[in-house]
Amino acid sequence: MGERSYCYHCSSVPQFMDLSPINKIMIAIYPGSFDPITLGHLDIIERGVILFEKVIVAVLYNPNKNPLFTVEKRVEQISQCTKHLPRVEVDSFTGLTVDYARLQQAQVLLRGLRVLSDFEKELQMAHTNKTLSQDVETIFLATNKEYSFLSSSTVKEIAQFGGSIAHLVPENVARDLRLYYS
Ligand code: PNS
């Protein structure tokens, strides 16, 4: 049932807006490249399942990028390291994230924010997505400060030169990276 409310800018004009709390099932899409998934990503997923009914981790198939792992491998890696979590699905998609969200009937795009430099790109992306779909909200979670320095590219660089990555990625991913660079 909508509540009666007044326009914020010209309070004399009554408006009818549905201000009742959202009582729908909230499905969140957590989109990304995940090449590969890091402990920072996993932390966002673990916190996401506390907030949402379902979290769909969606690996973007991007024909313009040259990833280390195939989309199928990344989906497998994420599925393995999230199997202890309820209500997490892992999938892949191509095209626009908002189209994929619509397909999944998701209301939320979940993204992690590590440092200030992430903010500009993420805000731009959130605004762009809003112009493409009014129905989807982007919600940011501050990345655990323990992982604020962490990125998939850093992990790959360390692994390439034989450095330790056990504290940066899930065990199965560390194994895959060691194998790849051996
Ligand atoms: O892990 P990443 O590479 O930072 O993730 C970026 C991602 C996949 C979320 C973003 O590139 C994306 O949504 N791409 C799909 C294309 C799209 O929807 N573009 C319009 C919004 S910018």
Summarize the structure.
The protein is α/β, with parallel strands linked by helices and 182 residues long. The chain contains 6 helices and 7 strands; from the N terminus they run βββαβαβαβαβαα. The longest helix is centred in the C-terminal third of the chain and has 17 residues.
Distance between the termini: 61 Å
Beta-strand content estimate: 15-25%
How many individual β-strands?
A: 7
In the predicted model, the low-confidence regions spanning at least 5 consecutive residues are none
In order across it, which strands form the biggest sheet? 5-4-3-6-7
Tell me which oligomeric state these chains represent.
Answer: single chain
In round numbers, the mean pLDDT is: 91
What is Rg?
19 Å
Q: What features would you highlight for this structure?
A:
alpha/beta, two-stranded antiparallel ribbon, single chain, 182 residues, 6 helices, binds 4'-phosphopantetheine
